[in-house]
Amino acid sequence: MTFSRAIKIAPSILSADFANFGQEIRAIEDQGCDWVHVDVMDGHFVPNLTFGPQLCKAIRPHIKTVMDVHLMIAPVDLYIDAFCEAGADVLTAHVEAGPHIHRTLQAIRSNGKKAGLALNPGTPAEAARELLDLVDLICVMTVNPGFGGQKFIHSQIDKVRALRAMIGDRPIHIEIDGGITPETAPLVAAAGADVLVAGSGVFSGGSVAKPQVYGQNIRAIRAAAEAAPR
Ligand code: DX5
Ligand code: ZN
User: Fold this and answer.
1) How far is the CA of 133 from the centre of ligand 2 (A)?
2) What is the CATH number of the domain that holds 54?
3) Which of 42, 89, 136, 177 is catalytic?
């Protein structure tokens, strides 16, 4: 993974057909996505349950691009090694998930993986300041985590701008997660984001039988983001 601030589209397989992950991943990659976003939820840190390291390991061989694993679990440290062994390229943990995020990020990096830090909508940009030397990605949640298909929270755009200024020249991605559409993508791209997660925004209207819809959705989000002044 060479660092670049070019716009990257990361479909969330939370919105894919859970009985068909292999084909769904092939479809979004054939249709031009850059990363594959995998939402891990524990029914405790967030009010929904998805999947664990075994599923990540099972889908890993199907991913040719980047496996971007978003952990919405607490406690998180117990599971870091398992998700690294499952093949995550980027492993992201929430600052709100426990008292020792610094240790968590160190553990991810010591496994040779890219470390991501996620911030809930109620958490200020300042929460990232002491962690900048330990992170490869900051994920700004633009919905409250737990479910796909929620409404984008506009107040987060100023936070993206503040984080972009805080990062300066450091090779740290800014990822946006939640409510990304061709309407919201340019707002966050202009504020400094480069990785755009989209669940419903990519998968709605398409299927493995109609993958060209995924392609249209990916291209529409990418074009809108790239047209924004950056
Ligand atoms: C929410 C997840 C997101 C979600 C985004 O907790 O982290 O990745 O799938 O879904 P959309 O794009 O539908 O808001
Ligand atoms: Zn996510």
Assistant:
1) 23
2) 3.20.20.70
3) 177
